[in-house]
Amino acid sequence: MPLHNIYTTWYTKNNEQRIGILSAESMLLGKSLYAVFIWHDVTEQLQAETALHEAYGKMEQEVEKRTQELCAANQELTAMNEEICSINTKVQKANDNLHEEIHLRQQVENNLLLREKQYRATTNLFTRPSIGTDKLAELILFNAIQLVGAMDGFIGKYDRTGTTFSLEHGIGMYEQFANTDIKLQEGPLKSVYNQGLIIRGRDRWQYHDFYDSTSAPLVSMILVPLKQENTVHGVLAVIWQDDHDISDEDITILRQFADLAFLAIERVHAQQNVERVAFYDSLTNLPNRANLHMRLKGELAKAATNQSEGIIYSIDLDDFKAVNDTFGHSAGDKVITATGKALLDFFAGNAFVARISSDEFAVIVPGKTTKQKAADIATRLSARLCSEYDIDSDHILLSASIGVILYPSQGKTVEDILRKVDTAMYSAKQAGKNCWKFFVPELLHKNVVDTVMINNLHKALPRNELFLQYQPQFSTDGKRLIGLEALLRWKNPEHGLVSPARFIPLAERSWLILEIGQWVFEEVCKFARFLANNGKTDLRIAVNISPRQIKQDNFIESIFSIINKTGVSPQQIEVEITESVLMENFDDVIPKLKALQDNGLSLALDDFGTGFSSLTYLRNLPINCLKIDKSFIDKITMDTVQLEFVSSIINLGHILAMDIIAEGVETQEQLNNLRDCSCDYIQGYVFSKPIDRDAAVKLCLNSIQ
Ligand code: C2E
Ligand code: MG
Ligand code: MG
Hints:
The protein is an alpha+beta fold. Helix 19 (668-676) links the parallel strand 24 and strand 25. The structure holds ligand C2E and magnesium ion (2 copies).
């Protein structure tokens, strides 16, 4: 068994320290136990070990140091890593943002592209200073076509009922159809109208779906409705010849174009409407008064430089109001339209024809003319306008009064000329209508004179300047006096005896006729009463009643109050009214006339034939007697047609149980004719002129009944 190992130190003779390990071991050799000591020099080993140890220590230190360094580096690295991580996150975020940004940018860019495209497409529309509203829709169409890369297209509008499509602008194939109307048939146009949606098609429709006249195949097309809210007003159509598709952006732009086009078309229509309303008459489509003013101003300027002489006609239909009142406004409108057309036909494009008020027209005939030429035209025009209008089932005979003036010789300004030509027209009216008159300066003077006369007329009644004459009415053999017509006379100290044809219109104009008319009626009643008091109860005294009198609300009351006051029998009185009275206020007048008739008064229709002579309305009138106007009687001996006309009036009157009195019968020949036609009574110079009261009393009292 080994003994303990012991380190021992000893020194060599060189005093070199040596270290060894002494180990002892017991050893049994035979029966003897021996101790064995072994010394083992481990100096080098120890040195090596120490060196190794040291080396290890150093190494450990180094490793420690390194480890620490590594740790530090590691920490740094971790920190860096974290930083990198955070940066990374940031980068990621930034990246995400960037993506988003890029996406957004792309969108913006797309938008911009779209806008730019739009801008490019629309820029033409708004950067052309000279473009008028009317051209805008066409330009939009042009741009729409360019946008799509097409050649053909059109813009149009549907009518309100969707039965017609008016193609307002056409480009390419459709240019020829601009401003034409198409009847809507089944097809794309109808579909757009019905559905209000964009229609895109390829090879689906042919040109003849739009128009029968073309047959070229349609390759691609897009129809965009022109819409406002839910109503489809029209279509913007683009048609192209290949099969290239168009992008959604393009469709968006087309939609915007359609909106723009609609606005443009609407604006043009609105503008046209404004112009139409401002310068054209809606009934006849003729230029209106404002338009006439403008035109005349221009013509005056031209005439001054060209030294030319033009003509203005002022045309007013005679008794037109009566047409309206009798046959209704729609018949009146038809007459006006027919007159407008007649004027256009008559002047055949060589004149400017305007409608300046309800039944008033004005015509400018520019160029070089003479007074004679103007007169010739006026004569023919007057004849042309005196005609029968077949309106619905009625035949309406109308005439016109015409004023004529030459410009610039007779007037230098528009107002001056129109005033003068109007005066001329009124003078034609006063001259009995259905004629024409030149303007003469005296006419203006006449206006002044009229005013003076009206002033005088005001004083006539209180000054006893008015009196009545009576014109007898006889049976055709002249033997039997049946009555007398009271005719008003005015003896003015300054002007002498003034004709009723002159002062009655003035009395009407100034409303003096109301006062004067009452006086006349009372005088007549007194006269009739006087005759009755003297046994002459069967003689009828006719009294003329003017339109203004009848129109008064208290007309009937005032008549009966006078009848009552004078105590006359209503059967002795005949009220004469003219056709125009009747025509002007048919609905108002008829009941009044009926009231008179119901109370025993007799009613006569005076001047028959000078109005528009519609025999059809006579049937419904409470009339006892027809007085055929002198103007017809004048012609019966020379013109068989006139005689036949008078004869037929007489027959008709008889059928309607009316008495017929012929007025203004001057000759025996006329009398004979009238007798042959079975005319009932005669009033005229052939038997007697109007006579004074005394002579009338004498005649009446001596008459046999
Ligand atoms: P009127 O009622 O048609 O009267 C008939 C006119 O013819 C009268 O003219 C009369 O003198 C005229 N006359 C009758 N026979 C002949 C003839 O054979 N030859 C010619 N050349 N003339 C004849 P006057 O008296 O000048 O009256 C003209 C018009 O004035 C009347 O036409 C009537 O419309 C109106 N008038 C007359 N008196 C009155 C009145 O008291 N009140 C109203 N409102 N109007 C009246
Ligand atoms: Mg009369
Ligand atoms: Mg008469």
